[in-house]
Design brief:
Number of strands: 7
Mean pLDDT: 85
Low-confidence stretches: 1-5
Helix content: 55-70%
Number of helices: 13
Structural class: alpha/beta
Largest sheet: 5 strands, parallel
Strand order of the largest sheet: 2-1-3-4-5
Order of helices and strands: HHHHHHHHHEHEHEHEEEEH
């Protein structure tokens, strides 16, 4: 190390490393972004591969993976990989491996096989959510929902179904909720309803919708509290007051939203319970 150069201290646990990768994502080169996408989307795959096999799968040279590790202060690929392996070993059930295998297993040959694989994908996704989503985080998010003047729910494309379901259940449970659907290109106008006493929930999965990201950033600028549900830990969603990373298994390129919709329902029910308690206390 040259004199006067600041030594980067590498993160010594997976959560810290994941956060650092997400926060620095925008400043990475295009090749390093490809590696970051892989590490955030398939950490167990990164834990089990070699630099050569990972480079082939990601579409970069092995030297780029070594450069990626050194970018975050590690001496090389092996030292960074050890952090991912520690996280994998800490898991009592390797559901990420099952998710990965489902995605690579090829086309289903018949209806029975297809049905079995979709069921397995749903189970794997739900178990992974159970493993990685703490009760404390759910409670914190539910409190943000319960205390909001209005909960605004934001999503586009395939996550729109989960946003609709969350809004529907919040309203059923007497939590004021509004779906920011952006129909007819009206999302900018709809955002005018959002105030600093509100909570905005953004649901966005890769590759994501630009409109969702812009509206999320605007909500934060307004001063609203924010909750994010995403499949990859990256800005701007990791800057939410509370954020969840959800892994949904894919079968032949099709992803159900089992874990995402289940999380939406859990949050709605808990928020409704907290709202009910608050009203009882006020009475």
């Amino acid at each position: 190390m040259e004199e006067g150069q600041i030594k980067i201290v590498p993160p010594n646990n997976f959560e810290a490393l994941r956060g650092q990768i997400a926060e620095s994502y925008g400043a990475l080169s295009n090749r390093l972004k490809l590696i970051a996408d892989f590490t955030l989307g398939d950490p167990s795959g990164f834990a089990l591969g070699t630099a050569a096999t990972l480079g082939e799968e990601i579409g970069v040279a092995p030297s780029a993976i070594i450069r990626f590790a050194k970018h975050f202060g590690y001496s090389g690929f092996s030292e960074m990989q050890a952090v991912f392996r520690d996280e994998l070993q800490a898991s009592s059930t390797p559901y990420q491996d099952r998710i990965r295998n489902l995605e690579k297993s090829g086309a289903a040959r018949d209806t029975a096989e297809m049905t079995e694989r979709f069921v397995e994908a749903g189970i794997a996704s739900l178990r992974e959510m159970q493993r990685t989503t703490s009760v404390e985080k759910i409670e914190a998010a539910a409190l943000l929902l319960a205390e909001a003047r209005i909960v605004h729910v934001l999503a586009q494309k395939r996550t729109f179904t989960a946003a609709t379901y969350l809004t529907y259940n919040l309203a059923r449970l007497d939590v004021p909720a509004n779906l920011l659907d952006g129909i007819g290109g009206t999302l900018t106008q709809q955002m005018a309803m959002v105030g600093p006493e509100d909570t905005v929930v953004a649901i966005s999965f890769s590759p994501g919708a630009e409109e969702t990201e812009e509206a999320f950033n605007r909500a934060r600028a307004i001063g609203a509290r924010t909750i994010a549900i995403t499949d990859q830990a990256r800005a701007p969603y990791i800057n939410a007051d509370c954020w969840f990373q959800i892994s949904e298994a894919s079968v032949d390129g099709f992803r159900s939203l089992n874990a995402t919709i289940s999380l939406a329902l859990i949050l709605a029910i808990r928020a409704g319970t907290l709202c009910s308690k608050q009203l009882s206390t006020e009475d």
